[in-house]
Every structure is written in C-alpha cells, then in structure tokens.
Amino acid sequence: MNKLKDKVALVTGGSRGIGKSIAKRLASEGAIVVINYKQNDSAANETKKEIEDAGGQATISKFDVSDFDTVHQEIDKIIEKFGGLHILINNAGITQDTLLMRMKEDDWDSVISINLKGTFNCTRAVTRNMFKQREGRIINLTSVVGEMGNAGQTNYAASKAGVIGFTKACAREMAPRGITVNAVSPGFIKTDITDQLPEDLRQDYISKIPLNRFGTTEDVAGAVAFLTSDDASYITGEVFRVNGGIYT
Ligand code: NAP
What we know:
Blueprint: E1 8-11, H1 17-28, E2 32-37, H2 41-53, E3 57-62, H3 68-82, E4 87-90, H4 105-133, E5 136-141, H5 144-148, H6 154-174, E6 179-186, H7 192-195, H8 199-207, H9 217-228, E7 239-242
Parallel strand pairs: 1-2, 1-4, 2-3, 4-5, 5-6, 6-7
C-alpha cells in the first residue's frame, strides 16, 4: 500500500506498545516514520529494524516530550531533514497510579507533563510547518479513562480528559489551514501488563467488554491509520473510540 507515500510521520513513544504498532502501520502504508522515545534504545532500534526489514522507511529521534525547548529543537531538525512533517501522532504517555489521598506531587506533575504538556509541546512545534504546508494530520492518544474516570488514576484521567479538550480546540484553530486534529481513545488494550493479570481478573475485565476481548495494539493502529487517510479528510475534532463497546 502506498497511501502515505512521501508523507513524513512522527510517532511519539513509537518504540513500544501501541506507538510501535502505529509506527509499523504508517510505514507499511508508505510513510517515512520518525520513531520518538525517551530511554529504551534497544526497543527503538528493534522497531526501526522491523520496519526496514518489511521494506519501510524509519528513523529515530530520541527526546523527552515534556521538555518544551528540546521538543522544538528536535522537531525543527526533523522538518529540516525531510523538508516537512505531515503527520504527528501524540502517543507518548505514562501512568503513575495511586489513590488520590496517597498521590505525591510528583505523581501528578510527571503524568500531566508527559501526557498533556507533551502533547501541547509537540503540537506547537509542528504547527508553523503544517500551516505553511496547508496540510497536516494530528492524532492524539487519549483513553477511555479520560472519558469515564477510574479510581486510582485521577492524574491520568485528568491528563487524558485534557487531551480531549486540547484536541477540540486545536481542531477549530487549525481547520482553516487544512489541518485535522482528532483523538483516538483506546479502552483495554492487550499489552505486557494485561498479559500478566491473573486469569480470573482478566476474565472479569473481559466479561465487561461487549465485544468480549481486549483490544490489540493493531486495532488502535488501524483507527489511527484511518484518520491519516484521505477517507478521513472531513473528520476533525472527533474522539474516535476503540474500546470494544465498554464506553459509548
Ligand atoms: P507503553 O507501552 O508504556 O509505551 C510508552 C511509549 O512512550 C514508549 O515508547 C516510551 O519510550 C514513550 N515515552 C514515555 N515517556 C516519554 C517521554 N517523556 N518522552 C518521549 N517518549 C516517552 O505505552 P502504551 O500502553 O502503548 O500507551 C501508548 C499511549 O496509549 C499512551 O498515551 C497511553 O496513555 C494510551 N493508552 C494506552 C492504553 C493501554 O491499554 N495500553 C489504553 C488507553 C490509552 P521509552 O520506552 O523509551 O520510555
């Protein structure tokens, strides 16, 4: 498939998990993918290798999305190297779960800084170039938790609800320049963490999901790929749920 031929796509947190599947999917559709990550070099190199082995193009850009100045410097370098940036996937995210009464200031600050401020930083850094191009697709990873809340995740829920508000405001601000901004909201996705749950707890979670299974990282990547495609050119400001029907 060559739907994204000549497009340059930055996937933050593209080295592992959902971001890795997104990076692989966009590369398989012809995009030149820039894999961002913070610290796990071997995961990033492995993702790059998998993309190249499959015939795709990938490069690596290591930076912390929560650092305003570094984000702007590194994204400027990407734009200079490739002559533009067409797709931004704000996927990098962390959790730091604990009950509110026990939550430390740093538990709050780190989650907000990476999940919400990181999304702001990267989006701000691509805006000038996308405005000039009069073309761009921005997709922000939120979460079912940002929509319905979850005990023990007040910091994460606030960051992800913030991402939804940010997405809707950006969509209005950038629409006149031909840029769409959407959020993808995954539910329970099969990851190393869900694989380690005790079987009875896993079954209990699954029984609450109408489609009766955890989602896969590929399910999420498929929704992201759709939002980068020509078929989605009239969609902006949306929250696109990929949650098996657990929250509608
Ligand atoms: P993950 O497997 O833990 O991977 C996180 C990725 O983000 C890694 O590539 C990591 O790089 C990178 N990262 C973390 N902090 C960073 C920072 N400060 N700067 C740059 N990169 C950073 O995560 P995931 O489970 O795939 O989740 C991906 C996104 O989907 C997140 O936004 C998450 O909130 C959202 N989501 C996930 C689920 C789920 O069930 N997994 C459900 C709903 C929403 P390093 O390894 O180098 O640190």
